[in-house]
Design brief:
By secondary structure, the chain is mainly β. It has one domain: Glycosyl hydrolase domain, family 43 (Tachylectin-2, Chain A). Helix content is 7%, strand content 59%.
Length: 278
């Protein structure tokens, strides 16, 4: 009963450049979808790869969602990767006409690269990118080098962001970016805006809360090291208390927003927990 009262869900939404939210119509009540990455955009459809979390299974799987651009209704849902361990954050890497996905699977202790086949709706493991429990890793090109940026267990919501380079076929940490605030964890893929590499990061509070909003940061190389400078912060609309993923592709921007089914109960339990921790 207590788990039911604390239950939350993530809703998916499109946002425009002025941060107006248009929520995708999801009919399911027994599951939710989060961590949206845009697989493709056509005149009629938006196709996403997301974390699907089932209340019954109590773990995440990777799902493909097909959304109508006209009505924002869900037209189809298929599970494309299901493992015994929790899966989320299906980050996409495109090389030519091939699509690769490297979802978060920190519970397994490593990060695996998969080749994705959209005809078969299937992900095939290709290689192990890193043998660490990475949380929401992102591959990005900075200063002419392909790097991996990621936090890792047990400090996934902290102030440190690891910078990894490919060494002997595996990504290994070579540097750490330390922030003044709890914004180490990635919130989506990097993107270019006005010639600047932008990184979305989760705003956390260092204890109970994670994914409270999104910090957008400019990445640049200074003195041979990656530096991050915050540009702006964004928070979810009224009625939601969290937002932890932003991705953009072909002019479409997508986010996820968290809401609690019984917010008054959740707030009371949070206040009790905070008081006991003092």
């Amino acid at each position: 009963m207590l788990d039911l009262l604390k239950r939350h869900r993530w809703d998916l939404a499109l946002v425009d450049d002025e941060w107006n939210f248009s929520f995708i119509q999801i009919p399911y009540k027994d599951r939710w979808f989060a961590d949206p990455f845009i697989l493709d955009v056509t005149d009629e459809e938006i196709v996403l790869l997301v974390e699907e979390y089932s209340y019954a299974l109590k773990r995440g799987r990777i799902a493909r969602l097909c959304i109508s651009r006209e009505t924002l209704e869900l037209k189809g849902m298929e599970i494309v990767l299901d493992l015994p361990t929790h899966l989320s954050f299906p980050a996409i890497k495109r090389k030519g006409n091939q699509v690769f996905v490297y979802p978060e699977n920190s519970e397994s202790g490593s990060c695996t690269l998969y080749r994705y086949d959209d005809i078969l709706k299937k992900m095939t493991p290709i290689s192990t990118l890193c043998k660490e429990p990475l949380t929401d890793a992102i591959l990005t090109d900075i200063g002419g080098s392909e790097l991996m940026l990621s936090t890792r267990l047990p400090e996934q919501n902290g102030k440190r962001l690891g910078v990894y380079e490919l060494i002997d076929g595996e990504y290994r940490k070579v540097h750490t970016i330390i922030f003044d605030d709890y914004v180490g964890r990635n919130a989506g893929d990097t993107f270019l805006r006005d010639g600047v590499i932008c990184r979305p990061a989760q705003i956390c509070d260092g204890s109970y809360g994670y994914g409270l909003g999104i910090s957008f940061q400019a990445l640049e190389v200074k003195g041979g090291e990656i530096k991050a400078r915050e540009i702006s912060r964004r928070y979810p609309p009224e009625g939601y208390d969290g937002m932890h993923t932003f991705n953009s592709y072909k002019g479409i921007h997508v986010v996820d927003c968290r809401r609690y089914l019984y917010p008054a109960v959740r707030n009371a339990l949070h206040a009790i927990k905070s008081a006991l921790c003092k």
